[in-house]
Amino acid sequence: MSSKFRLINFLSTSVLLASVGLFLVSCSSGSSSSSIALSVEAQAGQKLSSASGCASCHGSNGEGRVGPKWIGLADSQVTMSDGTTVIADDAYLYTSIHEPNAMRRKGSVGQMPSNQLTDEEIASIIVYIRALK
Ligand code: HEC
Predict the structure, then answer these.
(1) Which of 16, 36, 38, 45 is in Cβ range 3.0-4.6 Å of 125 for a Cys bridge?
(2) Closest ligand 1 atom to the C-alpha of 103?
(3) How far is the CA of 113 from the centre of ligand 1 (A)?
(4) Is the full-model pTM beyond 0.70?
């Protein structure tokens, strides 16, 4: 239980840092570029998602394939297979990765395989997912 809280704390801190980083990047780089400027933390998560095979289903830029797209996922409203809606917050993202298929999205076709990611690795991927607005 307490380790879960520590994770959430860790996540909020990383997310905060990542957002500050993104904010600074977007201030300094102008707004014309369409490619997303990723913070160092988010890039680490992106690398991890390729190395762990996530990108083959979720896209190398989070654009989605067999798996749902990650772009715009964080904090969006998701409809589950039983018709209920949830907000894709950190807890939702953590559970989706830690226990694949514990929750089914409405209309999901594929199955997500389980993985051996540590909490820190999951946190890193969540920072990346959060950067994909
Ligand atoms: C074989 C394809 C496949 C692979 C590999 C895969 N996923 Fe998935 N993923 C899916 C599918 C399909 C779903 C939707 C599952 C559902 O709704 O029950 C999903 C759902 C998710 C969700 C929730 C998305 C949402 O919109 O609700 C997250 C987050 C996620 N995956 C992260 C990961 C991460 C991180 C990895 C790598 C460790 C990974 N996935 C590897 C297919 C995959």
Answers:
(1) 45
(2) 18
(3) 8
(4) yes
